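User: For my dataset I need records formatted as: sequence, then structure tokens, nothing else. Please produce one.
Assistant:
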Amino acid sequence: MTGKTQTSNVTNKNDPKSINSRVFIGNLNTAIVKKGDIEAIFAKYGKIVGCSVHKGYAFVQYMSERHARAAVAGENARIIAGQPLGKCL
């Protein structure tokens, strides 16, 4: 273990209060891009409390809606692993 705190895989999908602080990342090449990569890219916008990666997409859960909105504005259509990210919501 590297001593780095690991982010939860939980993105509060059942918590209606946290929905506005969750970011959907589409068109993600998950054969190449892993959870740690997503966390490294999106951590600059605020504290990530959860990150879940699925085939072709991911969710990042922030502490606040403000952080999620900053991530959407900053990363929409960014190219990662040769693919432009789908609409971040």
